């Protein structure tokens, strides 16, 4: 029997002889069906006198990459479910993946998620292929430049000083501290509402949050941020809470709510109040996530330090933060305009005195 599974291995192995030449090794496939395809391909190449290059399934290649590379990344949780989509949506042997197969996968995925999300998954597939090839396995030759989907240029919406004043005037007392903290810290909505007292180091003036990708980030607290935190009632593990104004019965996911008691924020329960405040303030095209954009833009404008802003936001690389560079461009433009205007005024005055 040319296919067999050793007692201590999860993979099927092959062992056959053609024209007196023995070929043996692991298929790197836990599935017998995939292993049979690997063996058949190896036999064909051996008969034709071609160099027999080991093959591997997409599932196993992804598993190996995750074990050796992905599990050590800060974004390991994200890469894990992205790999799951790739395996379920494409599957099969790695070397059999075609341009059309990836294109069809992208078309199906873009029907449910944004093009940017699909592109991140395709980039991950490319990383898996590039990592697998030097290990001696046969891999597909794909033109990822042609497979990449178009992405709209991400906008950066900044809250003006006048808009902020109007918004603060109409925000409910429950939401005001959250919005103020977001504008100062640049933290995401979930990072703020899940912030716990145990995550706060008042003496060291720092806090730690779980950021996108699942890793933990520690950041400094400014005097205003410390004042906001100290003003919050310490009634539960979460720092930011709301005062219940309407009784709610018990549910499977949480106990009931009693009027006059304070409770931690849910992910969506307060969105209606947020939208109403925006409407009452006359602010259009503004999302809660834009508070993060506003914080980044303001800090970049005041400091000119893109790297520091990147660290504040918890970005893994400065390139991600580069979309806020318009703040510096605007300041440079204003400086140049002021210089030109000043020069023109000086020349006019000299002409008059002459």
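^ structure tokens above, recovered residues below v
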């Amino acid at each position: 029997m040319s296919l067999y599974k050793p007692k201590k291995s999860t993979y099927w192995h092959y062992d056959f002889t053609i024209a007196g030449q023995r070929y043996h090794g692991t298929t790197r496939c836990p599935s017998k069906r995939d292993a049979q395809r690997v063996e058949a391909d190896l036999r064909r190449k051996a008969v034709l006198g071609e160099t027999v290059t080991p093959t591997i399934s997409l599932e196993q290649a992804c598993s190996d990459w995750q074990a050796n590379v992905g599990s050590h990344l800060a974004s390991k949780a994200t890469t894990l479910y992205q790999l799951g989509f790739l395996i379920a949506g494409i599957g099969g042997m790695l070397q059999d993946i075609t341009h059309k197969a990836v294109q069809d996968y992208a078309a199906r995925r873009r029907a449910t998620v944004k093009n940017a999300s699909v592109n991140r998954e395709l980039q991950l597939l490319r990383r898996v292929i590039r990592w697998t090839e030097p290990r001696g396995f046969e891999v597909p030759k794909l033109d990822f430049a042609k497979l990449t989907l178009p992405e709209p240029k991400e906008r950066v919406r900044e809250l003006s000083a006048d808009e902020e004043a109007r918004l603060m005037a109409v925000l409910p007392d429950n939401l005001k501290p959250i919005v103020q903290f977001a504008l100062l810290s640049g933290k995401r909505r979930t990072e703020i509402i899940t912030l716990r007292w145990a995550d706060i180091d008042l003496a060291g003036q720092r806090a730690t949050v779980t950021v996108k990708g699942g890793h933990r980030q520690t950041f400094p607290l400014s005097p205003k941020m410390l004042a906001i935190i100290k003003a919050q009632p310490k009634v539960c593990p979460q720092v930011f809470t709301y005062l219940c104004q309407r009784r709610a019965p018990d549910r499977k996911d949480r106990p009931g709510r009693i009027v006059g008691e304070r409770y931690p924020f849910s992910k969506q329960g307060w969105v209606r109040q947020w939208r109403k405040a925006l409407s009452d303030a006359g602010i259009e095209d503004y999302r809660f996530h834009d508070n993060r954009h506003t914080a980044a833009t303001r800090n970049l404008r005041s400091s000119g330090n893109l790297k520091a802003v990147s660290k504040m936001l918890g970005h893994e690389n400065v390139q991600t933060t580069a979309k806020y560079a318009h703040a510096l461009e605007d300041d440079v433009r204003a400086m140049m305009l002021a210089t030109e205007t000043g020069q023109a005024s000086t020349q006019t005055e000299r002409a008059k005195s002459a």
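The two ends are 106 Å apart (CA to CA).
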